[in-house]
């Protein structure tokens, strides 16, 4: 039996996917049973880096998702529309879907999975998070027997590249972003990456799988790296930290019993990571996802989070998973009688997400203050009044006649810390609160 695939998109990932499918030697033998039947693109005139018969290329993507001979639609066009509508149409036609589109899944996952479950088809998304790194399937399968406590990831290669270069060169954000764009590491419009939106999409997806419920993207806290400065990276280094854009999903812990609770924290922000932490040495465009659970303990997935070949590896692994199911079902395109619960996403309730104000974490803050007697004492008193316990207060140097004061707190409630900071920001002696970052 040949499993026919309709590819939507023949760009970076689509080309990598076609390359693997057209060159099956020394790969899993099941690949030889998968055939590319149609390919949808925007322009038929563009030169392609893979050789396909002209007649299978079309700009009519609707005709692919409604083609009766196609069993799996692979959506690799990106963006929200027409990707969402094409996925829904494919599902309505009883086709399985493979996608790399985290933006669509994070926003419309509830609509898409509800439709897929009703139609008895699979929607597979290994490439959507961590590119080529297998992390979706492990969360659904091998790690599914664990009680997951936390998923912490560096899931955006662009920002990791920028932060790594800032760290290595001592440079500031803007010039390194411009250079990253020139070198093709960052997109012309870098918003989704540098403002943390891509990370938010990805952690929403990971949290949903790890904690078995749907996540409302609007409840994911998201802060990017635009305000991270060379000065903060240097101070962090002196204090024994590196700065990484972390995507974090973790169960809240009861402060009295220390037991894990049902509600989750789901957040993306630049974070001071201790230099000895496994995520601290993940540099350049690489991604890594640390999963913590019971009884597994800690397990970390590391590798290329993007790129044509690596991302296509994840896409084709999803195609193979569906093809294997179709083969073992002896050919029907629908598995409506008994979908494999280890491939499907069947949860329907929404996870409860804690507001940021209630979250407990450590903070790093850099202040510019008049170099006058009593300033540090005044800061300590204010933090104390707001139940903020300090781990270290260091006056490091002078900048424009102001003392630069770097403070690291113990674990405190976010609302208490922010209240103290608001009060401190109003003091006449404080010229500015230059940066506030969370500490892992
Ligand atoms: N690039 C990467 O490393 C990674 C990408 N992803 C995800 O994979 C998906 C694809 O990304 P990527 O391959 O980089 O994207 P590209 O921009 O390289 O390719 C997009 C492809 O889709 C086609 N296309 C786009 N819109 C339409 C449309 N409206 N009608 C018909 N064809 C259309 C384009 O056609 P044409 O060629 O004619 O212009 C092109 O072939 C995205 O969801 C992305 O987030 C995930 C992980 C990593
Ligand atoms: N823009 C993303 C790649 C795709 O997910 C990144 O920089 O990691
Ligand atoms: Na992946």
TrEMBL record:
Q: Which organism is it from?
A: Halomicronema hongdechloris C2206
As cofactor, the record names: a metal cation
Hey, which pathway is this one from?
Amino-acid biosynthesis; L-threonine biosynthesis; L-threonine from L-aspartate: step 3/5; Amino-acid biosynthesis; L-methionine biosynthesis via de novo pathway; L-homoserine from L-aspartate: step 3/3
Family annotation (InterPro entries):
ACT-like_dom_sf, ACT_dom, Asp/hSer_DH_NAD-bd, HDH, HDH_cat, HDH_CS, NAD(P)-bd_dom_sf
Q: Under which name does UniProt file this protein?
A: Homoserine dehydrogenase
Q: What is its EC number?
A: 1.1.1.3
Catalytic activity from the UniProt record: L-homoserine + NADP(+) = L-aspartate 4-semialdehyde + NADPH + H(+)
Q: What gene name is given for the protein in this entry?
A: hom
Q: Which residues bind NADP(+)?
A: 8-15
Q: Name one Pfam family in it.
A: Homoserine_dh
Q: Which GO-annotated molecular functions does the record name?
A: homoserine dehydrogenase activity; NADP binding
BP terms from Gene Ontology: methionine biosynthetic process; threonine biosynthetic process
Q: Which residues cross the membrane?
A: none
> Active-site positions, per UniProt?
202 (proton donor)
């Amino acid at each position: 039996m040949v499993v026919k695939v309709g590819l939507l998109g023949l760009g970076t990932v689509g080309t990598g996917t076609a390359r693997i499918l057209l060159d099956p030697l020394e790969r899993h033998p099941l690949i030889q049973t998968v055939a590319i039947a149609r390919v949808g693109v925007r322009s038929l005139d563009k030169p392609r880096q893979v050789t396909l018969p002209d007649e299978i290329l079309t700009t009519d993507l609707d005709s692919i998702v409604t083609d009766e001979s196609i069993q799996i639609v692979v959506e690799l066009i990106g963006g929200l529309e027409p990707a969402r509508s094409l996925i829904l149409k494919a599902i309505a036609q009883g086709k399985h879907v493979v996608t790399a589109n985290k933006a669509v899944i994070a926003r419309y996952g509830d609509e898409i999975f509800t439709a897929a479950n009703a139609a008895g088809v699979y929607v597979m998304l290994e490439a959507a998070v961590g590119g080529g790194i297998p992390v979706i399937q492990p969360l659904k399968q091998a790690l599914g027997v664990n009680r997951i406590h936390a998923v912490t990831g560096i899931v955006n290669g662009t920002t990791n590249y920028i932060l790594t270069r800032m760290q290595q060169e001592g440079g500031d954000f803007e010039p390194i972003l411009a250079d990253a764009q020139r070198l093709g590491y960052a997109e012309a419009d870098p918003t989704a990456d540098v403002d943390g939106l891509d990370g938010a999409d990805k952690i929403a997806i990971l949290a949903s799988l790890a904690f078995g419920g749907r996540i409302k993207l609007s409840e994911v806290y998201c802060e990017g790296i635009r305000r991270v400065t060379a000065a903060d990276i240097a101070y962090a280094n002196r204090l024994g930290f590196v700065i990484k854009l972390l995507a974090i999903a973790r169960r809240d812990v009861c402060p009295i019993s220390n037991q894990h609770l049902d509600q989750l924290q789901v957040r993306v922000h630049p974070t001071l990571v201790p230099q000895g932490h496994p995520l601290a040495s993940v540099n350049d465009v690489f991604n890594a996802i640390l999963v913590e659970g019971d009884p597994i303990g800690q397990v970390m997935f590391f590798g290329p989070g993007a790129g044509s070949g690596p991302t296509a590896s994840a896409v084709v692994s999803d195609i193979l998973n569906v093809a294997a199911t179709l083969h073992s079902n002896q050919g029907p395109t629908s598995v409506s009688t008994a979908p494999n619960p280890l491939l499907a996403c069947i949860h329907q309730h929404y996870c409860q997400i804690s507001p940021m104000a209630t979250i407990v974490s450590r903070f790093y803050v850099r202040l510019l203050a008049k170099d006058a007697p009593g300033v540090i004492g005044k800061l300590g008193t204010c933090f104390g009044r707001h139940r903020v316990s300090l781990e270290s207060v260091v006056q490091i140097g002078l900048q424009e006649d102001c003392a630069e004061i770097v403070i690291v707190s113990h674990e405190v409630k976010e609302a208490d810390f922010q209240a103290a900071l608001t009060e401190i920001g109003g003091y006449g002696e404080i010229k500015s609160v230059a940066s506030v970052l969370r500490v892992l």
